[in-house]
Write a structure and sequence with these properties.
Blueprint: E1 2-5, E2 8-11, E3 14-19, H1 24-34, E4 41-47, H2 53-60, E5 64-67, H3 70-75, H4 78-85, E6 90-93, H5 102-107, E7 112-116, H6 131-139, E8 144-151, E9 161-168, H7 175-201
Parallel strand pairs: 3-4, 3-6, 4-5, 6-7
Antiparallel strand pairs: 1-2, 7-8, 8-9
Length: 203
């Protein structure tokens, strides 16, 4: 996708969102970039679960979808070639539960980001996602939690941190009530951080 600013033709970065579930974060990102078409465009939703809600969201917004298979994802470059053929410039993980293979990370260096529902480096790693994170945070008696937006590397929840946002935990908070606070932070901040990073791709 091309746009012109002061007579200069710029390539509008194309974004692929990888998601596994209902897609609430994906929905917010899609809606955000519908009003920021000069900055970036969500061009593809990649999903590993047939019937996931995010696929319906993509259909509603007229966005192409790609349902991926585990063996091909982890053992071949099939999907990397497909992403490149579609001109994808940037990858956003939004509730995507598979570990990203090193081949994809190498193909998109510093162009894959993730959001984690806790303040890394605490409460990260394999198996720490969704409700499991909030339960662990509550069980540990933490006074605050939040979100971490970070670049993706070969380890779970390990890449360089881009941004963190914090919420307080009240003494009567449960994993469910904490999850609602975290979702609010995700919806408020993730799209804006993505916009800032993607804008830099055009210099």
């Amino acid at each position: 996708m091309l746009s012109k600013i002061s007579g200069k033709t710029l390539h509008t970065p194309l974004i692929a969102i990888f998601a596994s579930g209902a897609g609430s974060n994906a929905k917010k990102i899609i809606e955000h970039f519908e009003d920021k078409k000069d900055v970036g465009k969500v061009a593809l939703i990649v999903c590993n679960k047939p019937g996931a809600g995010v696929l319906d969201i993509a259909k509603t917004h007229g966005i192409e979808t790609l349902l991926i298979q585990k063996e091909l994802f982890f053992t071949t470059n099939t999907y990397i070639k497909l992403l490149q053929a579609k001109g994808i410039d940037f990858i956003v993980l939004a509730g995507f539960l598979w570990k990203v293979p090193s081949s994809l990370i190498k193909a998109y260096p510093n162009k894959i980001i993730n959001i984690h529902p806790a303040l890394l480096p605490k409460f990260g790693g394999k198996g720490m996602y969704g409700h499991f994170v909030h339960e662990a945070v509550i069980a540990a008696g933490e006074k605050e939690s939040g979100i971490t937006i970070h670049y993706v590397d070969e380890l779970y929840d390990h890449g360089n941190i881009i941004a963190q946002e914090i919420c307080t935990i009240d003494e009567n908070d449960t994993a469910d009530s904490l999850a609602k606070k975290i979702h609010l932070l995700e919806h408020m901040h993730y799209s804006k951080v993505i916009e800032g990073i993607v804008a830099e791709l055009n210099g």
